[in-house]
Amino acid sequence: MLRVAPGAAVGEGRDVSGAWLPTLGLAVAVAAGAVTQRVTGLGFSLVAAPFLVLLAGPVTGVLVANALGVAVSLMVLGQVYHHVDLRRGALLLAPALAAVVPGALLARVVPAAVLQVLVGGTVVLSLLVVLALGRSVAGGPPGPARPGTTVVAGAATGFLTATAGVGGPALTAYAVATRWPQSAFAATAQLCFAAVSAASVAVRGLPVLPATTWAAAAVALAAGVVGGTALSTRVAPPVARTGALAVALAGGLATVVDGLLGG
After folding, report:
1. Which regions span the lipid bilayer (predicted)?
2. What are the Cα distances from residue 15, in Å, to 52, 99, 127, 218?
3. Is the dihedral of CA 135, 139, 144, 145 positive or negative?
4. Is the CB of residue 100 less than 8 Å from the CB of residue 193?
5. 96 SS3 class
6. Contact in structure between 241 and 40 (CB atoms under 8 Å)
């Protein structure tokens, strides 16, 4: 049986190692998230986290998403680092890292079923906000990145990464609102995701999974990045982003329903 990570809710752990099908499902979710991250600059946790939560439970699933999020962000960052906006990245990271601790504390005390609904609901609500915000500001010139807006976006990214494993939508909403150029946003986002996910892992710890499960996740992650690199020159980012949003929305809704039904 899958052992529950330190701080996990009682009864939260789910078996992803006793049969090949759950492990295969985990690998598919990881690969899909990695492809999305490489093609669009974000979306690993947004796509993978809901399915990881369905497969492994809300605590373990979020921790796996955080741990693999560090790896995929660093892999992509190695290819796009020359576009990183270090100044804005630092302004976002300061509040993001500070918000990881309260987010981790909340995740420790919330019941597993409630946490699962929180994860799925966060994904769905965030997607709807980003889509609505995108329509409201589409076509305009770059907007100002006000200090207060940057602090809120950074704090939301850190808090949601630690609690639900999905800090990307908060950063995306900020990028859309300020009309941050895509190349700089996508590169800087990798730096932010890697640092915040690493902080979450440091605070909450790693889930105890069999070596074979971690190996399958690592292979799927690498394959997803390689596949995403190949697709990035063939698939237009808006098309890939639309597909990723659809998958993430379906996963978020399924996670909410499963949590409401008691997992």
Report:
1. 20-39, 51-77, 89-107, 114-133, 153-177, 184-206, 212-231, 243-261
2. 12, 31, 29, 19
3. positive
4. no
5. helix
6. yes
Q: Look up residue 94 and give its two tokens.
A: 């300061």
- pTM, entire model: 0.78
Tell me how far apart the alpha carbons of residues 28 and 34 are, in angstroms, rounded to a whole number: 10
Task: Tell me if 39 sits within 8 A of 232, measured CB to CB.
Answer: yes
Q: Any idea which of 13-27, 47-61, 130-144, 164-178 has the lowest mean pLDDT?
A: 130-144
Judge whether 220 and 16 are in contact, CB under 8 Å: no
How far is the C-alpha of 37 from the C-alpha of 187, rounded, in Å?
11
Residue (of 201, 161, 219) closest to 45 by Cα position: 161
* pLDDT tens figures, 47-73: 888 888 888 888 888 899 999 999 999
Between 134 and 171, the higher pLDDT residue? 171
3-state helix, strand, coil split of the chain in percent (to 5) is: 80, 0, 20
Amino acid in the structure at residue 54: L
Q: What type of residue is 188?
A: T
